[in-house]
Amino acid sequence: MNLQDLKNISTLVGLPKVFKDDLDLDHLLMNKYPKRTWLWVLKEAGSQLFPIKSGVDPRLVTHWLSQSNIAIFLVTDTSITSIGRSECEKLANEMPFDVKRFASARALIDAVSALLGDSNVTTLGLVPAPHCPTTTSWTVWYKWFKGKQPVMEIIMKQAIEQLIAINNKEVA
How far apart are CA 48 and CA 29, in angstroms? Predict the structure, then answer.
């Protein structure tokens, strides 16, 4: 996606009115992670760019859905499509992966470890996450996210259950 495309859409919808430099930052992020799909919310004051299926707290984007003057888009590396508030909320809450598809402990551990290694996923607001890099600490992670970050709360609960199921199959 090129910067001029973003600016053209911004001009078309008349947003943002201030902090228009956010568009430059959005463009940089989109190019840094070109294979990602994004939710892009243009507001009166700036924009919010949110990576779908990333494990990042969905409230970072759904928070803005109650504002009256916003424009919401689904952005890929080849297209920008206007979407509604309910679709935005649904997409923001999508899981990064289906935990149940993992048949091997190693693959599951690697996938969950990749999520937990991303500070964008593990930081809650301005509070940094605990340092718990091993699978034995997944319950610590679950407790960290419980009631505070819905997507990762579900992922951690399912990952713990799936790892137990995989290990039980291997023992049987």
Answer: 11
DSSP per-residue string spanning 34-61: TT--EEEEE-SB-EEEEETTS---THHH
Question: Do residues 77 and 1 touch, judged by C-beta distance below 8 A?
Answer: yes
CA atoms within 13 A of residue 151's CA, in its CB half-sphere: 27
CA 118 from centroid of its chain's CA atoms: 11
How far is the first Cα of the chain from the last one, in angstroms, to the nearest whole number? 51
Q: Are 75 and 40 in contact (CB under 8 A)?
A: yes
Q: Which tens digits make up the pLDDT trace of 120-164?
A: 898 887 777 777 666 668 999 999 999 999 999 999 999 999 999
Question: Element (H or E) spanning 113, and its range?
Answer: helix 105-116
Contact 61, 92 (CB under 8 A): yes
Q: How many CB atoms lie within 10 A of CB 7?
A: 14
**R_g of the chain, CA atoms, integer Å:** 18
What pTM, to 2 d.p., does this model score?
Answer: 0.89
